[in-house]
Design goal:
Layout: H1 22-34, H2 37-44, H3 48-62, E1 67-70, E2 73-76, H4 78-99, E3 107-112, H5 114-121, H6 125-131, E4 136-141, H7 148-151, E5 155-160, E6 168-174, E7 177-182, H8 184-187, H9 195-200, E8 204-205, H10 211-218, E9 228-229, H11 233-241, E10 247-249, H12 251-259, E11 264-266, E12 272-273, E13 277-283, H13 293-304
Parallel strand pairs: 3-4, 3-5, 8-9
Antiparallel strand pairs: 1-2, 5-13, 6-13, 7-10, 7-11, 7-12
Length: 306
Amino acid sequence: MTAHANPHSSPAAPPLQGLPSLKALHAFEAAARHLNFRLAAEELDVTQGAVAQQVRALEAELGVRLFERRARGLAPTEAGSAYALRVRRALEEIADATRQLRPGERQVTISVAPTLAAKWLLPRLPRFAERHPGVELRVLASERVSRFHAEGVDLSIRYGQPPFGPGLHVERLLENTLIAVGSPALVGAAGALTPKRLARLPLIHDAHGSWPAFFAQAGLPVPPPGGTRFNQIGLAIDAAIAGQGLALASPFFVAPDIAAGRLVRVLPQVALRTGIDYHLVWPQRARGGDVPLDEVTAWLLEEAAR
């Protein structure tokens, strides 16, 4: 029997030839971005050896050297650098096309540091759900700087000073001013301390190391080094609540604890303006689909203004 072509059908697209493995391309793109197989492996949740093997297989298939292996990491060859740029664009197009297959989902993925997520954002989420019942807000708590399209992140709250990179919108969300706090059991219910007694209390440090600047602004001598150090502000606040020492924190982190009597403010006349704030950051080129980004950013700014 002879097959007859449908006169109304479009001509078939030619088959795609010479496509490498998508897994190999994904490994190569991550390695090119980090210039490090270990960091690429952590991102992809595979072993470092698996990433290296995928990249070697891709180089063998292409017959082109993509990286120079060096003692301190990777350096892309000229061909590898150009290829990485085009592969990244292609993967972003695939991700956007996939998201657009789900037009019924109105969701925004927001990346935020763990302390800001736990101490500021999470307590406010019920108000967002009440205001926008048709929007799903996905919270990615991470210290890492977001790679918007590569990770499917629509919006990020970043601590730092702009600019944060090309092609990004930036708007300040929260001004970062530090106050000293401690548990009532440690400092007394009023939080009023003489300089002499203050100097005898243990200090809790975080990654920002702002105690010397705080004491200088208060006109007090800086205590000698010592105390407990944490890599996250949230842990320092929890240690202060437990009575382990004094901590520095932004008022928007500790306001509920002060209101509940778990913390009291020490040296209430001193507030250290750091000049490094929290900002909303999102790409100028948003991903495809129905992304209610304006609704989320407007709500966040409204909450910050409370």
